[in-house]
Design a protein that fits this description.
This is Cytochrome c domain-containing protein. InterPro entries: Cyt_b/b6_C_sf (IPR036150), Cyt_c-like_dom (IPR009056), Cyt_c-like_dom_sf (IPR036909), Cytb/b6-like_sf (IPR027387). There is one protein chain. By secondary structure, this protein is mainly alpha-helical. It is built from 9 helices and 4 strands. It has 3 domains: 44 residues; 89 residues, no CATH class; 78 residues, Orthogonal Bundle (Cytochrome Bc1 Complex, Chain D, domain 2). A two-stranded antiparallel sheet has the order 1-2. Helix 3 crosses helix 5, helix 6 packs across helix 9 and helix 8 packs antiparallel against helix 9. The structure holds heme C. Heme C binds next to helix 6, helix 7, helix 8 and helix 9.
């Protein structure tokens, strides 16, 4: 391109109020991209985050959890699924589990086709800005909720209490435990601790609570804190 053509092009861009793709646009992106890669590279040389513990197929009480940046997906389906079932829509869970995400992803693909409005100032685009804010709040809320669910509740959850205090004697289907140890009852019989998989249809919540507070038969007094009993009773009552 000679000087004259250059000038001509420059004027054309100016008239249209746009900038040339190269070098204005692409070069900048290239530089930012390279800087980002360089930063990551240097970071990886000096920082060595731990990889977590080695997988243990024998650990039946393991609570699988996604990486934190996927907590929002998990938590959305946890919370959403809960309210979905409260609404009595369990039969239609494909709407929540498949249709809703499919519509969300399809919308992302369609946005550039639907939204052809060239305005670039955010405040002049309330709908798109609103959707963006909604998206950020959505991700933020469910991520935070997921962090809370994993870091705070898991330690308290009944199956962790079961694992640490009950699983040496009792078995619950899906949660493991064992009944290998026979226990001597006060009357001198040897019995196996009962399978608790369906204890909710055998004992009432009050009976379960009584067994935990003042164990009968060969079950030892475990001196469970009241909070643990409060968590365990509804949990066990639901095993039907
Ligand atoms: C040292 C072994 C042992 C431990 C630990 C133990 N249990 Fe038991 N548990 C027993 C035995 C033995 C019985 C049967 C008592 C009987 O039949 O009279 C029993 C009975 C029960 C029952 C009544 C079940 C039924 O069908 O009658 C419940 C509920 C129960 N245990 C819950 C628990 C919970 C919850 C924990 C942990 C917080 C726990 N147990 C820890 C040995 C144990």
């Amino acid at each position: 391109m000679n000087d004259h053509e250059h000038e001509h092009k420059a004027k054309e861009y100016q008239d249209k109020g746009v900038v040339p793709f190269w070098p204005e646009h692409l070069l900048k992106e290239l530089v930012v991209g390279l800087v980002a890669i360089a930063v990551l590279f240097v970071f990886s040389l000096f920082v060595h985050p731990s990889l977590g513990h080695v997988a243990d197929p024998g650990d039946w009480a393991y609570v699988p959890a996604p990486d934190w940046y996927f907590y929002w997906v998990e938590n959305f389906f946890d919370v959403g699924g809960y309210y979905w079932s409260v609404l009595g829509l369990v039969k239609y869970d494909w709407i929540l589990m498949f249709l809703v995400p499919a519509i969300g992803v399809a919308t992302l693909y369609l946005v550039p086709f639907i939204d052809r409005y060239p305005e670039r100032r955010l405040l002049k685009r309330p709908l798109m800005l609103g959707l963006l804010m909604f998206g950020m709040l959505f991700l933020g809320y469910f991520t935070a909720n997921g962090v809370y669910a994993h870091d705070t509740l898991t330690a308290e959850e009944p199956y962790n209490i079961f694992k640490s205090s009950c699983a040496t004697c009792h078995y619950i289907q899906g949660l493991g435990g064992d009944q290998t140890g026979a226990v001597k009852t006060p009357t001198g019989q040897w019995i196996y601790p009962p399978d608790l998989s369906h204890v909710g249809s055998i004992l009432s919540p009050a009976q379960i609570q009584a067994q935990l507070e003042n164990p009968k038969g060969g079950m030892p007094q475990l001196n469970l804190p009241p909070a643990a009993i409060k968590d365990l009773v509804p949990f066990l009552s639901n095993l039907k």
